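BUG: 3D viewer hangs when loading the predicted structure for this chain

Environment: internal workstation, default settings.
Expected: structure renders.
Actual: progress bar stalls at 90%.

Input used:
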Amino acid sequence: MNTDPIADMLNRIWTAQTASKPMIDVPFSVLKGEIALCMEKGGFISKIIRKKKEGRKYLRLVLNYNEGGNLAITEIKRVSSPGQRIYKKSKEIKSIKGGRGVSIISTPQGVVTDKEARKKGLGGEVLCEIW
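Structure tokens produced before the viewer hung:
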């Protein structure tokens, strides 16, 4: 049993990208799907495919690489954890790496990027940061 499935997902993405894998499979959950959607909006994942194999659902994430095969993700960091939740108000949410990165936030209106949260005036739990 995994105690932090979001950290597991982020580690799988980072490991696959550093090994130059074209895609990875992650066990499905609605929250992981929303996080992957935010990563797709940020340009870190090129495609999300929902699959079902042997009665289990999973997400197939097609990783995105920059021109020349360079990594699209320089760093990926879990901010909140099951033992320590980090919450921020909309005015406290700052841009990541001068706007080149994305912070993914769980708000009352769903999982959104930092830009969307500031635009809508939403605060919430900061799940992770990617740049």
